[in-house]
Design goal:
alpha/beta, FAD/NAD(P)-binding domain, eight-stranded mixed sheet, three-stranded antiparallel sheet, 9 helices, 11 strands, binds ligand 48F
């Protein structure tokens, strides 16, 4: 059989079009394919929820690939070892309470398991705005990252979602859009994002899980974004908090979604 380039092109275009149309009305839309966002997406998809994730970059994985200073190993504490095990990521004990995992195995395995569980990931797409109705976030405004990079004057498209998760890491991009444009008060001391504090792994890892929660109606913060919103410290290349944050936000959302279904 001779290969026909037009058949290849049609296959891609038709399949992607169907996938994108399906993504326009979902239970949960996650912004950012770092470890926190992908873990959150995995648990939601595994529970049968319709969940999509939009990632600005070509590759998923956010800040996890590079371990610490590009040494591609990550450290995970006792509490989060169960999440590594759940995904089937191999780890080894370095010292009491500290486990090491290969960052490449970690990112690729989390991504693979999440996608196979049913999470639909759209890479190369930037979330540039949100939809707000009655003071509640209920969707996202999307454009190709290439449009953003080239500063082209091209209008975006819109999708609807029962809940949105900001997993954009340090910049907390969705929370900052809310702060700038919506007039909605965030659930913080000042009603605005507080900005992250300087490095303190022990505190940062504890607060990140606590801070990963609803920050205004319809919107949850997850992972490093949560510490940026609530003023918690950064923690460097220990990643247990990111994994536990993803698991926690997924658990909170599953409760909310089942309450809405009743
Ligand atoms: O930064 P990132 O990995 O966030 P995370 O899951 O994990 C944080 C750690 O990697 C590390 C750390 C540990 O000490 O602090 O930084 O909380 O992943 C965030 C992802 O969001 C994407 C971005 O490209 C990255 O892959 N992202 C950011 N803004 C947007 C976005 C946006 N507006 N639209 C789409 N994707």
């Amino acid at each position: 059989m001779k290969l026909d380039e037009v058949v290849i092109s049609k296959a891609i275009i038709e399949s992607y079009k169907d996938k994108l149309v399906e993504a326009l009305d979902v239970d949960v839309a996650i912004v950012g394919a770092g470890p926190a966002g992908m873990v959150c997406g995995y648990y939601l998809a595994r529970a049968g929820k319709k969940v999509v994730l939009f990632e600005r970059k070509l590759s998923v994985g956010g800040g996890m690939w590079g371990g610490g200073i590009m040494f591609n190993e990550i450290v995970v504490q006792d509490k989060a070892k169960t999440v590594l095990d759940e995904f089937g990521i191999r780890s080894r004990r370095y010292a009491p309470g500290y486990y090491l995992a290969d960052s490449i195995e970690s990112v690729s395995t989390i991504c693979s398991r999440a996608v196979k569980a049913g999470l639909k990931i759209f890479n190369l797409m930037t979330v540039e705005d949100v939809m707000v109705r009655d003071k509640r976030v209920n969707g996202l405004v999307l454009n190709w990252t290439a449009v953003e990079m080239a500063h082209l004057h091209v209008d975006p498209i819109t999708m609807r979602s029962r809940f949105v998760v900001d997993a954009t890491g340090h910049p907390a991009e969705v929370a900052r859009i809310i702060e700038r444009k919506s007039g909605i008060r965030l659930n913080t001391r000042t009603g605005k994002t507080l900005g992250e504090a300087s490095m303190w792994a022990d505190v940062g890892e504890e607060t990140i899980v606590r801070h990963s929660r609803q920050i205004c109606p319809g919107l949850y913060a997850c992972g490093m974004c949560a510490n940026a919103v609530f003023g918690g410290p950064r923690m460097g290349p220990i990643f247990g908090g990111m994994l536990l944050a993803g698991e926690k936000v997924a658990g909170d959302l599953l409760k909310r979604l089942s309450a809405r279904a009743k």
